[in-house]
Design goal:
Layout lengths: L7 H11 L4 H8 L6 H14 L4 H12 L5 H10 L4 H13 L1 H12 L7 H13 L4 H10 L6
Helix pairs in contact: 4-6, 5-6, 7-9, 8-9
């Protein structure tokens, strides 16, 4: 019994059937199986033309998957790492800025549940949120209102 390697086109379709990919991601996954870069580029151009490969849909999917856990700065880095073009990233990131405070509050509540008891704990919690990609101005607003809520 012989095993036939799937074609490059079939591999690309299989990847896209699982989830949206950026052009950069798909090119990296196909490169080891391709004879040349031109072959990969031709398939990616065809898929883009047919609407099967979309940077915008991939960016929206990445944002949707990370929105509940990370802030805009972290999501922007993830989009850049996956090769999303700046114009596609700017469109989806603009919507995140509006709800950044609420998202930071939700992430903070899930992790800590209680306001900080001292300055060291406050710094620890702020550093956590910074690491998650939330802006310092949003974090300051959040901690100003932490004691005010009837939590």
């Amino acid at each position: 019994m012989s095993f036939k390697e799937p074609s490059l086109r079939a591999r690309a379709l299989r990847h896209l059937a699982r989830r949206e990919h950026t052009r950069h991601e798909l090119a990296l996954k196909l490169a080891p199986h391709a004879g040349s870069e031109a072959e990969v580029a031709q398939i990616l151009d065809d898929f883009t033309q047919r609407g099967w490969l979309s940077e915008q849909r991939a960016a929206e999917q990445i944002v949707h998957a990370r929105r509940g856990r990370y802030g805009p700065a972290r999501i922007r880095r993830d989009l850049e790492a996956k090769g999303v073009p700046a114009e596609a990233a700017a469109g989806v990131l603009a919507a995140l800025k509006d709800g950044e405070l609420e998202a930071a509050r939700a992430v903070w509540k899930k992790k800590f549940r209680m306001p900080p008891v001292d300055a060291a704990e406050r710094v620890k919690q702020m550093r956590f949120l910074l690491g998650r990609g939330f802006g310092s101005e949003v974090i300051v607003k959040l901690f100003r209102g932490v004691g005010d809520d009837d939590e």
